[in-house]
Amino acid sequence: MTVVVFTTSLLGAMALGMPIAFALLVCAVALMLMQGNIDTAILSQKLIEGADSFPLLAIPFFMLAGELMNAGGISRRIVVFALTFVGHLRGGLGFVAIFASVVMAAISGSAAADAAAIGALLIPMMRQAGYNVPRAAGLIAAGGVIAPVIPPSIGLIVFGVIANVSIGKLFLAGIVPGLMMGLSLTIAWLWVARRDKVTVLPRQDWGARARAGIDGIWALIMPLGIIGGLKFGVFTPTEAGVAACVYAFVIGAFVYRELPLRQLYPLLVAAAKSTSVVVFLIAAALISAWLITLSELPEQVAAMLSPFMGNKILLMFVIMAIVVVVGTALDFAPTLMILTPVLMPVIKQAGIDPVYFGVLFIMNNAIGLITPPVGIVLNVMCGVANISMSDLMKGLWPFLWAELLVLFLLVLFPGLVMVPLAWLSR
Q1: More confident: 27 or 179
Q2: What is the pTM of this model?
């Protein structure tokens, strides 16, 4: 009965066009009514408690860091640096897109922002050079979804808060899977672009490469500083967000001098708006999570999955398959908010490491950003590349399958996540 009330109230509210946060509140009220104990004071109190979390402060800081990075010329210099090394290769602009996606993922943590920034810089160049534009846009879209996996990831922060899992461990555990996603895209691009007849850029001499490296050095060391600081305990994930903001502002405003102070206010407003949406979602989700626990919904889900509980790998395959299906219908945030409190008790009961599950869960949700019809990164790339969704999907498939293959391998071989995490945590 609890499962029916939960799904009916949530999907019904969403079908009426309610924003996800309000749909979660409706779901919470429905669960309260089912228990015969509705109290609006508890709802408001739990809503405030959901937003009153120190780790959540990392979200506005990393969002602002992403805005400052794009406005201050950091993103452009990362692309230019990669161009000097591989721009002369056949398909070289595709390799530039992958490199830029991985580096920018380690700075902003936002899939849509990274894909939009890289697409705006490279799509016009790729179109002029004769690249297949839908395929190029598909590659950049697939590269964008590396951002929620590699630290600093907003998705990992949200999961850590909802699931009560160490955000620092989640960050370190996301490095290798994120790099594997980048490697899979490189292999897929090598395969699909090997016969393309495109115009290549002139080979740059080492002097030009050195100049691009010197010009972009401040942009290139930014992710190393963030990840290194987390590994060696220099700062917490929240403090890392502050450091990223200060660094991006100083470099953009005073070193590169491309970030005028008058532009700072609009960037602060944009980051604040994005943050308010995410934090309200989290607060509403934590109310639902509290009531889900009281309603014993996780126990009912565990009973449904009981045939698979004896085999961790098989259970993970089943859960990941469910998340893939849900991700085609729901966006990243709703899937994360709704399924985390339902699945975490099942994961703990099965003896699966929450950090390992969290990274794969976030990766799965990130891949959902490039699955139709809801994927937000798809809509962003359609606008940036000025192509239809159907054309974009034709170009995307090789890269979507490549990232799903990485997910499959990580389920099959958990050591690919856990062994590097143990080493990085030393």
Answers
A1: 179
A2: 0.83
